[in-house]
Amino acid sequence: MNVLVVGVGGHAKAVIATLQAAGHAIVGCLDDRAGAEGTAVLGVPVVGPTSRLAEHDGEAVLAIGANAVRQRLAAAHPAARWATVVHPTAVVHESVRLGAGAVVFAGAVLQPDVTVGAHAIVNTGATVDHDGRLGDFVHVAPGCHLSGGVTLGEGAFLGVGAACLPGVTVGAWTTVGGGGVVVRDLPPHVTAVGVPARSLETPQ
């Protein structure tokens, strides 16, 4: 497939590398910053601002690590065709369901009956065990480990090396700091850190 990459930062580099490893053709990158057009990311040219996504008749991927930004861009382009991208070294069981625009990076493992929402990210070397539920716009950072039956609400973010014990739920748009261990359910819209992970504020 011919894929347009939306974004030019460090996360976009990882997405481009994943697309290349999977054998997909990349037609260019989009970015809204002044002066970006005409530059390149890993040899892929920046061909214009994100508004040009509306002109693209192929597939595209949101190569931006920030969950809220991916959500905003997806909402702004409801007619876009979103590519689902899986690195060839990832281990993804045939029963796994991947949403439109989801990206699974090198070395990730998705066990049976995992569901990954639209525009979700399972980053390098992360593992999601059986029956996991990852909502839309989730980001599971490198080296995270989710035990069986874990649920991550929409927009949840797990920092590098975070872990979740079996069956816990992390609420929508909640952040778990790097290395945090979630041993009980976390509510929506909080930041939790530590071992065990504890909320730093009162939930909204």
Automatic annotation (TrEMBL):
Which residues constitute the catalytic centre?
H130
What InterPro entries does this protein map onto? AcTrfase_PglD-like, PglD_N, Trans_hexapeptide_repeat, Trimer_LpxA-like_sf
Q: Does the keyword rRNA processing apply?
A: no
Q: Which SUPFAM superfamilies match?
A: Trimeric LpxA-like enzymes
Name of the protein in its database record: Transferase
Does the record's keyword annotation contain Calcium?
no
Which family is this sequence assigned to?
Belongs to the transferase hexapeptide repeat family.
Q: Where does the PglD N-terminal domain lie?
A: 2-74
- The source's domain of life comes to Bacteria
Residues bound to acetyl-CoA are H139, G178
Q: Which organism is it from?
A: Rubrivirga marina
Please report a single Pfam family linked to this protein.
PglD_N
Q: Which PANTHER family match?
A: ACETYLTRANSFERASE, UDP-N-ACETYLBACILLOSAMINE N-ACETYLTRANSFERASE
Residue sites binding substrate per the record:
G65
